[in-house]
Design brief:
alpha+beta, four-stranded antiparallel sheet, six-stranded mixed sheet, Alpha-Beta Plaits, 2 domains
Length: 448
């Protein structure tokens, strides 16, 4: 039961509220990204659709204008070939010529005079000739003003969006058309049609310097996408409200999972008996300390310690007492070093300590302190006799030993020297030059 409580305690302390906030923020970010993407794509699609419709409308309007001009040619030809007009030309009947010119919006040019008046520019016109045996007697010109009537004829043939309109331009000036209320903006001509207020597509007409423009207010196009944006906004708000409700419910299971993972990770690097780091955790700490020391031109000392005659303690007092000795030794070692130092159970009755930023002399003093702390341990046994504990220590320093393997091997050699010298003492490992060969050898120093 106690083990179960120890297992559950970290999970109960997990900041559930923090996980709820994290889940909500994650959902909020994803929702905003999706909403922004949907609105942007919808707006882009709406604009493409309307620009295509405007371009198609302008093209159809230009085709309608071409048909109108063709019809005007037919009218001019029919008028020139009519017997009534030809008789009036031959007889030089000015009264009849004026009546025909007025009724057909035409201009009849004889050799010496012109009868009739054409509409002012801009206009659409077509001319036919009246001749006799190759001799030109007169020319007949039929014209239509390029204005509202022509625009109305084109507009009836052109499918456009609801708020779109057609505009006739001649020599870059507006001659007819435009949306309601747009006259002031269009009065100065084409330049104003190309502002951001309108989406516009133009097509040239079969008349020099003339074109038709299909345009639509930007606000009308944006209004369509704005309605979709409002819908997406409402859906996003509803999603966030739902996420807020679910976040608090999902936070506790998530916190439990994270806690379990952290607990399992801690177990993977923790010795179950002593609560200290295990060999795996020790290796990670040593490698990190060596990397930091190498990068910052610093030092690391490594200590290996072994309980003296631990087998005799187990044989004399039992394995349960041996386990209590291991726990007591672990606590004594951990209580003798700094918080930044890493104490670990190296295996069996061996312990190790990583002393970051510590020179060999300081590490030796810390090892002495640990040795004395262990020396004071007395563990009661089931038989009433206390188990006394001593410990031997081996110390080595980086960068005297340049990597983890040589550092551990040097500390282990120093520990072996401490054991051979009588146990319950500290031995340090140094490298001493050998002048005769220029190499190096391990020098061991012990203290008790």
């Amino acid at each position: 039961m106690n083990a179960l409580r120890r297992h559950q305690q970290p999970v109960e302390r997990l900041p559930v509220r923090r996980y709820a906030v994290m889940l909500f923020l994650l959902t909020a970010v994803m929702t905003c990204v999706v909403a922004f993407t949907l609105v942007r794509n919808a707006k882009r699609g709406t604009w493409q659709q309307h620009e295509t419709a405007l371009a198609g409308g302008a093209h159809v309007a230009a085709s309608t204008f071409g048909n109108l001009r063709s019809n005007l040619r037919v009218q001019a030809s029919e008028l020139a070939t009519s017997l009534e007009l030809q008789r009036a030309v031959v007889t030089r009947n000015d009264v009849q010529l004026q009546e025909l010119a007025r009724s057909h919006h035409a201009l009849v040019r004889l050799r010496d005079r012109a009868i009739g008046v054409l509409p002012a520019q801009p206009r659409i016109s077509s001319t036919a000739t009246i001749s006799d045996n190759g001799r030109v007697l007169a020319t007949v010109t039929v014209a239509v003003p390029l204005g509202k009537d022509v625009l109305a004829l084109m507009r009836r043939q052109v499918p456009l969006p609801a708020h779109a309109a057609l505009v006739l331009l001649y020599r870059d000036r507006v001659v007819a058309g435009g949306p309601a209320g747009a006259a002031p903006q269009l009065a100065n001509g084409r330049a104003q049609l190309r502002t951001v207020r309108f989406a516009a597509q133009a097509s040239p007409l079969a008349l020099p310097d003339a074109e038709v423009v299909a345009l639509e207010p930007v606000a009308a196009i944006d209004a369509l996408s704005n309605r979709y944006r409002s819908f997406v906004f409402l859906v996003a708000v509803a999603t966030l409200a739902l996420a807020a409700g679910l976040a608090s419910k999902l936070a506790r299971p998530l916190a439990s999972i994270v806690g379990e993972v952290a607990h399992l990770r801690g177990q993977a690097q923790t010795d179950a008996l002593t609560g200290l780091a295990n060999r795996r955790g020790l290796v990670e700490s040593l490698e990190a300390a060596l990397a930091h020391a190498e990068a910052n031109d610093s030092f690391v000392s490594f200590v290996i310690a072994d309980i003296d005659d631990f087998k005799a303690i187990n044989d004399t007092h039992g394995h349960q007492t041996g386990d209590r000795v291991l726990r007591s030794v672990g606590a004594a070692l951990a209580g003798s070093v700094r918080e930044l130092d890493r104490v670990a159970r190296y295996g069996g009755e061996e312990f190790a300590v990583v002393l970051a930023g510590t020179r060999l002399a300081d590490a030796r003093r810390l090892a002495e302190r640990m040795r004395r702390a262990v020396h004071e341990i007395e563990v009661p046994s089931p038989h009433g006799e206390a188990a006394h504990v001593t410990m031997s220590f081996g110390v080595a320093e980086f960068p005297t030993y340049a990597n983890a393997d040589s550092l551990v091997a040097a500390a282990d050699a120093a520990l072996y020297q401490a054991k051979r010298s009588g146990k319950d003492q500290v031995a340090t490992s140094t490298v001493e030059a050998r002048p005769e060969v220029g190499a190096a050898e391990v020098g061991l120093a012990t203290s008790s």
